[in-house]
Amino acid sequence: MPPVRVKSRPLPQADGGLRTPSPFGSSRLVRFGPDLPDIAAEDSFRDVVKKISTYITEAVQLPSTFEQLRTTSAGENLRHLVEHLGRTCTHPAIVNALLALKWHYGAITEDKGLHDARANACEIVAWRFLTHLSEREAVDYCLYEIPEQPSTDSDGRRSDEEDGEVDENSALLAQAWNGTADSARRAFTQSGSGRRSMLFQSITRLTVSMTADSDDEDDEDDPTAPFIHLNALEIAAIADAKRFLSQNVVQKIITGIWNGDIIFWDNLSAHSVKKPRFYNRATADPFSRLRVPKYLKAFEVLFFASFLFLYYAVLVERDPSRITTLEVFLYLWFAAFSYDELSEWIDAGSVFYATDVWNIFDMAMLLIGLIFFILRIVGLRLDDDWYIDLAFDVLSLEALFMVPRVCSILSLSPYWGTLIPCLKEMGKDFVKFMVLVIIIYCGFLTTFSLIGRATYTFGEMTWFLTKIFFGSSYVGFDIMTKIDPIFGPPLMVFFVMLSSILLMGSLTGMLSNSFSRVITHAREEYLYVYSVYVLEASTSNRLTHFYPPFNILALVIFRPLRLFLPSDHKFRKARILLLKATHLPIVGAIELYEWAMGKVQNGGTQYNGMKGPRHAIVPSPMPPQKKWAHSPVRPGRPGAQQRDSSSSLAPVETMHPASAASMARLSATRKRAAEEAAEDQIFEGADGELRLQVADLSAKIDRLTELVITMQSAQSKSLTDVAVA
């Protein structure tokens, strides 16, 4: 009797396909869950958001914490989504869409527990998706800015082809204003705070869009339009995605921006375009280093130190009869500081500006400085000593905000960066608790003032109760019989017990609880503050950024001319020329510093300015000893074939497809890691001995991989013969 040939029946895969059973007897269970989204590279950002939101809504049906979604079976569907996106998705705005949904779900007030779980799910998928990418791909995805959808006018021409130029930013960012466009579209193409403040207004319409059953998108405004020209990191900062920003893959990008390894402007010319790129010392304009956040912060420290010096010098000098030279410089420093804050608010936007608590101190400093200037001029004009003395008294109040402002410099260090958020949260809880204290205090003050009106005035009783509340309990026992011999003693004993034991003990426990709550997430808080500062300092749409006090010079020269002259290329060239003339010593100091750091770090080699992730993807070459057949995979993202979790590369041999694909991917991944390690010697200055060890290890891994493939091929062939027999 001839042997019966057993034909295996394919099993369905988790992504909806079919899979052949493993010859070793193990097979993957069929996954029941929501349909995985099919995101094409040509989909609009709105389509991507809708597809992802549909899956997240079906995948997360119960309230879950972040840790439950990350570690338990409640996040199983999220793992399938991450694998699916890492294998098939090539859309450059996928991370932007996930973080926009994080903000969308987090802003919904109804059914808060469920929507917070969905917001956490979007954040988890976003950072897990980045772990499937190489470092350079992660940079491309995190710094990808959502483009504006082209619109057409009545003549059929694209609106972005108009020649109208509004200002310096509009030409560089290709954001021309179309006179025939609707008001909503024109508002969304604004830059700065006008555009970002509209993000809050889009929450309601975004919610309606995600839950609506109608597919007619032409009759409603695009609720995702306010996200135009924002990159994923900016959306993460606005969405309060602190866990996403604290991930190592994201922090490496932010650190690269901080150090200037990743820049947005590589040269200063009238035709420059804002685009994230990796710094190349050989081709980049040295004046582009003025936009590096690290150097911006260093010059900010120097400017603030000189500001403090002038402030104390004017207070010590205190000439009531005339405005001295030091006072004139103080006014110039105040003006430069005010204009720089205004430019920062316009460039970063009100959303980013509000996230930095130190900007509140800046606003208070500017307000006090303005009041001092007005009182000083009025006093000198009227020759009134009272106004002059009041002006200097008001200026003395500046120290309450200017001196603590030094902590903003310390907040960029890990220790102070974790301590300051704790103090901020404790201050918020203290203010809330004091509302209860004031209410109780007013009740006792009313009672004691009325029953003791014959002995003490209202002002005296207020001062007595204030001293009792802050610990002087003996004062209450001394005056309780004088207030009233009947009601005074029991009321005073109760007030002393309430204030000294219950309220103060509750306040201490609450502040301790606040400190413990924040310190557990102190690293996330510190990295969030650090990330917001870096993004605020680096993502400005302004080509020419003048350091204070040079910004006053640019304001005096070019602002009046802008009222009469068009903002053309010649106007921009003039601004660039002034920038280079005034900031040449600063650029020289930066170049000297980078040259010295290159000497120290690279052992005498020249500083290459490239310590972070690399930009161009270098594909791994095919192993020469085998012939490889490419399986179908969606094109578009470089390196997607190496990350395909099904079978991106399979050897043409008689062996089990799943095993061969796994070992082939392992070999390709190891080779890629070895090549990137070899490439790192260019950027990180690895010594020769380490390079030889990496190359030797790579060769051993390749030989071991080939041996395992051969053994599994032989085992698969023997199992097939047994099955046929």
TrEMBL record:
<feature type="region of interest" description="Disordered">
    <location>
        <begin position="606"/>
        <end position="667"/>
    </location>
</feature>
<dbReference type="InterPro" id="IPR056336">
    <property type="entry name" value="YVC1_C"/>
</dbReference>
<feature type="transmembrane region" description="Helical">
    <location>
        <begin position="399"/>
        <end position="418"/>
    </location>
</feature>
<keyword id="KW-0812">Transmembrane</keyword>
<feature type="transmembrane region" description="Helical">
    <location>
        <begin position="295"/>
        <end position="314"/>
    </location>
</feature>
<feature type="transmembrane region" description="Helical">
    <location>
        <begin position="463"/>
        <end position="480"/>
    </location>
</feature>
<feature type="transmembrane region" description="Helical">
    <location>
        <begin position="430"/>
        <end position="451"/>
    </location>
</feature>
<keyword id="KW-1133">Transmembrane helix</keyword>
<feature type="transmembrane region" description="Helical">
    <location>
        <begin position="360"/>
        <end position="379"/>
    </location>
</feature>
<keyword id="KW-0472">Membrane</keyword>
<dbReference type="Pfam" id="PF23317">
    <property type="entry name" value="YVC1_C"/>
</dbReference>
<feature type="domain" description="Calcium channel YVC1-like C-terminal transmembrane">
    <location>
        <begin position="304"/>
        <end position="596"/>
    </location>
</feature>
<feature type="region of interest" description="Disordered">
    <location>
        <begin position="1"/>
        <end position="23"/>
    </location>
</feature>
<dbReference type="InterPro" id="IPR052971">
    <property type="entry name" value="TRP_calcium_channel"/>
</dbReference>
<protein>
    <recommendedName>
        <fullName>Calcium channel YVC1-like C-terminal transmembrane domain-containing protein</fullName>
    </recommendedName>
</protein>
<feature type="transmembrane region" description="Helical">
    <location>
        <begin position="492"/>
        <end position="511"/>
    </location>
</feature>
